[in-house]
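Sequence in, structure out.
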Amino acid sequence: MGITFMEVLEDEIFRDAEIRAGKEGLRRQIGRVSVFDCPYHEDMMEEGVIEEGDLFLSCLEQFPPEEAGMERFIRGLIQYKAAGLMVVSSGRTDLLTEEVLQLCGRNEFPVLVVRRSNSYAQIMSVVNRYIAAGSANSAIELTCEELAELAARID
């Protein structure tokens, strides 16, 4: 058990978030949250920068408009089974072209745009709180299962 993207979106901070693509992927489990605002290089994916369940925050300003880097970045996130992408709106949402959004939709990869007034730190704090709660719930569930097994052996 963990925490899903959908559960995190229940928080008030995301009330105005716009789901741009991959709504079906909101059931993905989030394992950790990270910021990705550096230049993208495909070999980064191979170096273990991304793990399954990673949720990325970005303003997308690292992608020059004349390059196809955004699509390569999204393909890498999908390949490495990232949980999704939250774009903090800053005017670079133009990189979320119809082709990129269709790619995300086909792969059930959620892309959200959140208000710029929410800082990365605020967003990360909320997501990390949900991840911690999900971990605690998992530990409690596991303990209950172990106690039930122990009780069954005693009877």
